[in-house]
């Protein structure tokens, strides 16, 4: 469930643009005004604001934000203002350009989005980067990572609820056999995770647990330092329990010395309108601290205010 | 029996040979023959055999062939009328069911459709079969071409004109080396070969194939990979699809063609009628002496023939 709060009477896009223009005018920037508007508009409304701003002031709102804002606050506002598909395309491109084997952004986009959202991201990628997502991922990744990531970003999973139990049994067995042999990048293992529907994968992994005694992710922890295994575990989590996955990213982002703002920003911005409410509950359960307290403790200023607004904090 | 009768018997014999059925001749001849003429026909023709219990029995194989030839018109109409997405989805399903000899259809659809058309087929496949194309291809295809085929049906290529010449040249070299190294490593198992052919845009690949010739003393890549069927088809479909389609037509019209190959005639004409049939028609006689229209006049019958000729005449 979304944590975004939108006022009962939403001003027109034209009124919002006028206010934003005021926020940029003169010396300095009225960040509070920006937050009070943008942090309380949904994707369709933000899109309308961007269009209206461009038509009225002949400037791309994003370029203005780029000019006027700085640092973490700028990044969170810019990412938030983007259309979800464009945002995913931007994040994916960023991830391929500075790809490291610990980067899980591509897995998030390929697995935690719906098949339709992934398609939209791929379309947005064409439009913005004049390349296909898969060609950039293929070009910038290597070895086992490429073997997994390219099929993941190219997938268009069936989105129905049905699962075939016989298939679940067979494929649970295949997964288990390959894990026992430590053949973590085996074709069949990747095939199952990259092509089966989420419902089917759920059924298969439940079967796995029943049959072999453990969650597959426990079995995939054989070597805690192995980064490929980490990506596999992320894949499984994003496909089956994204709230838990994102709750963990938040926990690790906030606990890190100095906070990993990128991770924090990314999760809040990409999940605020999706399942942030559930993520908050998961976070609280795991950390005994509400998410907004954790955010308030570790971040400052306008960046903090924006994050709190997006996660549904009452005063923001 | 008169000469007229033997002429008529000849005509009837010919009505089922080739493609489709000459409905009008069957109506006018069979409809008027008396019992003696019918019996004589059964005695002299090879469609029937003298049974030990003293009657002329219809050969089962011929009844089956008749069924297929009568259905050929229906199948053509149905295929033509279908939404292109459903058409491609069903063709893919059939190719997977028919087995390795039909896998060229997977390459055909993966490489000669526009990006949105291929994605449309993926959507239709969900609706028709409750599965994704990639999961079926990945789990059904077991041969060495699996990686390539899965990648081809999952692609969502950029379609703009932008090409990076340096990259194209270096990728041409990569392909050339992979082909040279074929003795040690099968080119279809080479990750870079699959990456380049399945993710790059068609314009980019045009440049790649051009540069390839600089390394191979002028020989095109499709020539050098002739023995690797799926790879050869891939290169052909990506560079000069009409060459590929002409070969499919030639194979279909060949007297030794089996039913699956014969189906290529309907498939190519229906799917290319509004795409590149003009080029196909223009290039066809260069290797085959006769024009495609002449060949169809010669080898097809009745409504099926008329329908194909009508499709071939579109856009003129």
UniProtKB/TrEMBL annotation, chain A:
One of its GO terms (biological process) is response to cold. PANTHER family: ANNEXIN (PTHR10502), ANNEXIN D1 (PTHR10502:SF104). Belongs to the annexin family. GO terms for molecular function: calcium ion binding; calcium-dependent phospholipid binding; phosphatidylserine binding. PROSITE patterns: ANNEXIN_1, ANNEXIN_2. This is Annexin. Ca(2+) 3 binds at residue 298. InterPro entries: Annexin, Annexin_repeat, Annexin_repeat_CS, Annexin_sf, AnnexinD_plant. Ca(2+) 1 binds at residues 24, 26, 28, 68, 254, 256, 258, 296, 299, 304.
From TrEMBL, chain B:
One of its GO terms (biological process) is response to heat. The keyword Metal-binding applies. Pfam families: Annexin. One of its GO terms (molecular function) is calcium-dependent phospholipid binding. It comes from Actinidia rufa. InterPro entries: Annexin, Annexin_repeat, Annexin_sf, AnnexinD_plant. One of its GO terms (cellular component) is plasma membrane. Ca(2+) 1 binds at residues 16, 18, 20. This is Annexin 4. Keywords: Annexin, Calcium, Calcium/phospholipid-binding, Metal-binding, Repeat. PANTHER family: ANNEXIN, ANNEXIN D4. Ca(2+) 2 binds at residue 253.
């Amino acid at each position: 469930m979304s944590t975004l709060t939108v006022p009962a009477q939403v001003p027109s896009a034209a009124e919002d643009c006028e206010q934003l223009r005021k926020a940029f005018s003169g010396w300095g920037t009225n960040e509070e005004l920006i937050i009070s508007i943008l942090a309380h508009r949904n994707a369709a409304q933000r899109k309308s604001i961007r269009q209206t701003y461009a038509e009225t002031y002949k400037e791309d709102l994003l370029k203005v934000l780029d000019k006027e804002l700085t640092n973490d606050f700028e990044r969170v506002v810019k990412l938030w203002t983007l259309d979800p598909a464009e945002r995913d395309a931007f994040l994916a491109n960023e991830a391929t350009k500075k790809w490291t084997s610990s980067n899980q952004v591509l897995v998030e986009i390929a697995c935690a989005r719906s098949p339709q959202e992934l398609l939209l991201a791929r379309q947005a990628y064409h439009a913005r980067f004049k390349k296909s997502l898969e060609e950039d991922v293929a070009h910038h990744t290597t070895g086992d990572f490429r073997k997994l990531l390219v099929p993941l970003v190219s997938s268009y999973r069936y989105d129905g609820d049905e699962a075939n139990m016989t298939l679940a049994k067979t494929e649970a067995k295949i997964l288990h056999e390959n894990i026992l042999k430590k053949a973590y990048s085996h074709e069949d293992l990747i095939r199952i995770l990259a092509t089966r529907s989420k419902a089917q994968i759920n059924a298969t992994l439940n079967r796995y647990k029943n049959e072999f005694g453990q969650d597959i992710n426990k079995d995939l922890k054989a070597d805690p330092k192995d980064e490929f295994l980490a990506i596999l575990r992320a894949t499984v989590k994003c496909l089956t329990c994204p709230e838990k996955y994102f709750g963990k990213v938040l926990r690790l982002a906030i606990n890190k010395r100095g906070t990993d703002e990128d991770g924090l920003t990314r999760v809040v911005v990409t999940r605020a309108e999706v399942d942030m409410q559930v993520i908050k509950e998961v976070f609280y359960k795991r950390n005994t601290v509400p998410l907004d307290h954790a955010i308030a403790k570790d971040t400052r200023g306008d960046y903090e205010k924006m994050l709190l607004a997006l996660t549904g904090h009452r005063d923001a | 029996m008169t000469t007229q009768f033997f002429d008529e018997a000849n005509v009837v014999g010919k009505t089922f040979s080739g493609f489709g059925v000459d409905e009008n001749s069957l109506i006018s001849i069979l409809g008027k023959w008396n019992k003696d003429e019918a019996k004589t026909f059964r005695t002299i023709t090879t469609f029937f055999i003298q049974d030990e219990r003293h009657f002329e029995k219809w050969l089962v194989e011929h009844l089956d062939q008749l069924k297929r030839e009568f259905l050929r018109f229906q199948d053509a109409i149905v295929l033509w009328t279908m939404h292109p997405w459903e058409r491609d989805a069903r063709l893919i399903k059939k190719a997977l069911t028919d087995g390795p000899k039909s896998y060229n259809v997977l390459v055909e659809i993966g490489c000669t459709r526009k990006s949105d058309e291929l994605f449309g087929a993926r959507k239709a496949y969900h609706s028709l079969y409750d599965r994704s194309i990639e999961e079926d291809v990945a789990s059904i295809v077991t041969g060495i071409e699996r990686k390539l085929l899965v990648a081809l049906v999952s692609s969502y290529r950029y379609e703009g004109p932008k090409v990076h010449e340096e990259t194209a040249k270096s990728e041409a070299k990569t392909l050339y080396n992979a082909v040279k190294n074929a003795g040690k490593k099968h080119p279809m198992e080479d990750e870079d070969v699959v990456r380049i052919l399945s993710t790059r845009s068609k314009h980019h690949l045009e440049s790649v194939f051009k540069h390839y010739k600089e390394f191979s003393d002028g020989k095109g890549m499709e020539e050098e990979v002739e023995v690797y069927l799926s790879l050869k088809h891939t290169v052909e479909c990506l560079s000069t699809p009409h060459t590929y389609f002409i070969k499919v037509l030639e194979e279909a019209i060949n007297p030794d063609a089996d039913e699956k190959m014969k189906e290529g005639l309907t498939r190519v004409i229906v799917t290319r009628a509004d795409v590149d049939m003009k080029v196909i028609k223009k290039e066809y006689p260069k290797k085959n002496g006769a024009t495609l229209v002449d060949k169809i006049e010669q080898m097809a019958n009745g409504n099926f023939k008329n329908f194909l000729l009508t499709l071939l005449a579109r856009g003129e």
